[in-house]
Amino acid sequence: MKSEILDALQKLADAAEDAGFSESVVRFRLEKALPAARAAIKSAKAAPPERKIVQICQSGVGASALCNDGTVWSLFNGGWIIAPPIPQGESP
């Protein structure tokens, strides 16, 4: 996702760069590049934030990781599996 945004912004910057072109040519290039930049920014805003590990715990059977979004993941047979959410509120 970041590369798409950077590519769109680079195209927008390239379009705005005045390399001896007339104002109307620069305006045309900006108008052509702006929709892609807007679409990339809109897509990035709608995307969930990147998950990052906050804490890791290792046991005899594997490892678990607590992430910044509150999820807990366990490493099992070489792959990550999400743990069920911890119940909130009153105890049963």
Q: Which helices and strands occur, and which strands form pairs?
A:
Elements: H1 2-16, H2 23-46, E1 53-59, E2 62-67, E3 72-76, E4 79-82
Antiparallel strand pairs: 1-2, 2-3, 3-4
Helix pairs in contact: 1-2
Summarize this structure briefly.
The protein has 2 helices and 4 strands; from the N terminus they run ααββββ. It is α+β, with helices and mostly antiparallel strands and 92 residues long.
State the secondary-structure class.
Answer: alpha+beta
Count, helices: 2
Number of strands: 4
Helix content range: 40-55%
The rounded distance between the terminal residues' Cα atoms is: 42 Å
- How would a textbook summarize the main sheet? 4 strands, antiparallel
Strand fraction: 15-25%
Could you tell me the mean pLDDT?
82
- Main-sheet strand order equals 1-2-3-4
Low-confidence stretches: none
Name the shape in a single word: elongated
* Secondary-structure element pattern, one letter each: HHEEEE
What does the oligomeric state look like here?
A: single chain
Total count of domains? 2
What radius of gyration results from the CA coordinates? 23 Å
Structure in words:
It is a single chain. The chain is of the alpha+beta class and 92 residues long. The chain has two domains: 45 residues; 30 residues, no CATH class. Helices cover 42% and strands 24% of the residues. The chain contains two helices and four strands; from the N terminus they run H-H-E-E-E-E. The protein is elongated and about 70 Å long.
